[in-house]
Amino acid sequence: MTLVSNLINGISLGSVYAIIALGYTMVYGIAKMLNFAHGDVIMVGAYISYVSTASLNVPPLLSVVIAMAVCTVLGILIEGLAYRPLRKASSLAVLITAIGVSYLLQNAALLIWGSTPISFASVVPFDSVSLFGGKLVITAESIVTVAVSIVIMVLLNLFTKKGKMGKAMRAVSEDKDAAQLMGINTNATISMTFAIGSALAAVAGVLLCSAYPMLTPTTGSMPGIKAFTAAVFGGIGSIPGAMLGGIMLGVIEIFATSYISSELSNAILFAILIIVLLVKPTGLLGKAVKEKV
Amino acid sequence: MLKVEGINVYYGNIHALKDVSLEVNSDEIVALIGANGAGKSTTLKTISGLMRSKTGSITLMGEDISRTDAHKLVSKGLAHVPEGRRIFLQMTVQENLEMGAYTQPAYLKQGIKDVFERFPRLKHRKNQIAGTLSGGEQQMLAIGRALMSRPKLLMLDEPSMGLAPILVQQIFDIIKELHDTGTTILLVEQNAEMALRIADRAYVLESGRITVSGTGRELAQSDSIKKAYLGG
Lengths: 293, 232
Prior knowledge:
Order of helices and strands of chain A: HHHHEEEHHHHEHHH
Structural class of chain A: mainly alpha
Shape of chain A: globular
Radius of gyration of chain B: 17 Å
Strand content of chain B: 25-35%
Distance between the termini of chain B: 34 Å
Shape of chain B: globular
Mean pLDDT of chain B: 92
Structural class of chain B: alpha/beta
CATH topology of the largest domain in chain B: Rossmann fold
Helix content of chain B: 25-40%
Largest interface: A-B, 22 and 36 residues
Strand order of the largest sheet of chain A: 1-4
Number of domains of chain B: 2
Order of helices and strands of chain B: EEEHEEHEHHHHEHEHEEHH
Low-confidence stretches of chain B: none
Number of strands of chain A: 4
CATH class of chain A: Mainly Alpha
Oligomer: heterodimer
């Protein structure tokens, strides 16, 4: 039973990574940049949800919506103020800026909310499910997290495959100049991608803190890095890849923690990543499309 | 239809276009010929807003467009088939055409019908990923995609590049046909012979400067042009 329970915990944690990884991968796909501040948007989302419920007495579900709205605006602002002026700059300059934005968000949170860890009240109103006479307990947070990530995945897939804006997003991520020649406003499309990614980050933040209820200004950085790893693992730029990479990462992490060593779990995680990238440099589902002449 | 006056374009320190002026009248085919690196593609990119000129003006149907964003020019009737086709290789043929009609959603259905009628080979490959098409098919898709925006002025950059002679002939037939159905065309070509044969007028670009202009026939018969671009 512990095996099943570990598997469920792994999938649940992995689902959170997957939702964060979607933001990384979509932004990378379209703007060809690694938005290292993405992890910190998670933290902001969690704080906003916390403040809404604890100080403003907003119902938990509504607090998630508020967190998503705030993070959407935050994502658009970050892109517009920090990254857009660097559209033609070297990728190194953009990378440094992203790290700067990450620290800016962490320090702003430190200034506003202080460094004392906040115990986050779960937004999931259900009880745990107990199976096999109490031998297997599945927390409501796990179920909700997995369900939410599946819904997000399906909606995003529909959006990018069928929606006009979604198709435009794919066009921009493949060839910005050609997309402009179709009449697509590339800046608006990039902005929208940041908005979607950041709204998802807010959801991930709330789910993460509901399952692991300790919130500090640096809460987002480790999950952010792991989700980035998940995105690379699955094949950066690929939406199903981010999902698969996230879930695999979560399962590996939980298994490594419970069967090998909790101290070594991150080392094992990254060792596996390195091996996968050695064998398949484009990640599990990443593909290199060759141009025909 | 299109008037370019005294544009100067730079890539960093490189002065790519020097006081280039040209004009395309309604219902004309105008060819822009020249050697590799003469600035032909840069000229088209500047007209379509992907690059900016430091001086001069670009007027499309009476409106100054020299500072207009590229994506806003499509609905003003300008379509640009860029060098190397630049179709969306990871999207299907159908999706590529949909992107072409991004600014013309009302025309989408009819447009796809029209394109498939003109290029029946694309119809069979409707759901195929564009990256798997042959070079000729990709060129047809690139032209078809541009037609989806119902352009008044169609700019084609090296449409014959990398194609077998029989396909080159086919592409030029299509250009003539488009012209006959009322599309004005600005054609950039290295294949000067073919270009001058169908062009009403032509300009020769040499190291960023327009050196000669005249009717297609005049240029095709000029000794210096023959020597430089038509293989003697």
